[in-house]
């Protein structure tokens, strides 16, 4: 399974994303993930998904490569979605059995959680595929410099 994970690998390229500074990519990735957690409607998720696919397109790396990166984690994502669906109440109840219920709110939240996880994996993969490990390490060290006093 470890040979199927693409997170952490670097693919050399000449795209605009490849040439961005590692600190810029890392900070932009953190901002994107923060915005992703603030999203609360389908329009926002559609916009963030479009943005993610445009960034992937700009890397010049095949979409299939990113899909292969999600495959090893799909069961974890689906398990999380199932828990979200079973324990979120509200809206129309479709199924109820003791503490478990599947409702319209649960389904919508499950879809949002699925999209959120996949987009986080895609953006993280963009960062690692387009940044050498040494540059990424340097960027992390630079960003964490203020914490040196602790």
- The rough form would be described as elongated
User: What gyration radius follows from the Cα positions, in whole Å?
Assistant: 18 Å
In which order are the strands of the major sheet placed? 1-2
Number of domains: 1
Query: Mean pLDDT score, rounded?
Result: 90
**Range of strand content:** 5-15%
In terms of structural class, how would the helical and strand content be classed? mainly alpha
Low-pLDDT segments, ≥5 res: none
Largest sheet: 2 strands, antiparallel
Task: State the share of residues found in helices, binned by percent.
Answer: 55-70%
SSE string, helices as H and strands as E: HHHHHEEHH
According to DSSP, the number of beta strands is 2
End-to-end Cα distance, whole Å, is 38 Å
Tally of separate helices = 7
Keywords:
7 helices; single chain; two-stranded antiparallel sheet; elongated; mainly alpha; 150 residues
Question: What are the SSEs and their pairings?
Answer:
Elements: H1 16-19, H2 22-38, H3 42-59, H4 63-70, H5 74-87, E1 93-97, E2 100-103, H6 104-129, H7 133-143
Antiparallel strand pairs: 1-2
Helix pairs in contact: 2-6, 3-6, 4-6, 5-6
Structural overview:
The protein has 150 residues and is mostly helical. It has one domain (21-142). Helix content is 65%, strand content 6%. It has seven helices and two strands. It has helices spanning 16-19, 22-38, 42-59, 63-70, 74-87, 104-129, 133-143; strands spanning 93-97, 100-103. It has a two-stranded antiparallel sheet with strand order 1-2. A hairpin with a 2-residue loop joins β1 and β2 (100-103). α3 packs parallel to α6, α4 packs across α6 (104-129) and α5 (74-87) runs antiparallel to α6 (104-129). The protein is elongated. The model has no long low-confidence stretch (mean pLDDT 90).
């Amino acid at each position: 399974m470890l040979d199927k994970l693409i997170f952490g690998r670097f693919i050399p390229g000449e795209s605009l994303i490849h040439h961005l500074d590692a600190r810029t990519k890392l900070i932009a990735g953190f901002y994107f993930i923060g915005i992703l957690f603030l999203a609360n409607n389908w329009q926002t998720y559609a916009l963030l998904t479009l943005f993610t696919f445009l960034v992937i397109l700009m890397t010049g790396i095949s979409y299939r490569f990113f899909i292969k990166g999600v495959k090893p984690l799909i069961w974890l994502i689906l398990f999380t979605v199932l828990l979200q669906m079973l324990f979120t109440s509200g809206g129309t109840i479709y199924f109820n059995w003791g503490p478990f219920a599947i409702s319209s709110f649960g389904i919508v939240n499950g879809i949002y959680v699925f999209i959120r996880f996949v987009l986080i994996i895609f953006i993280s993969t963009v960062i690692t595929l387009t940044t050498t490990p040494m540059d990424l390490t340097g960027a992390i060290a630079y960003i964490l410099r203020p914490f040196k006093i602790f």
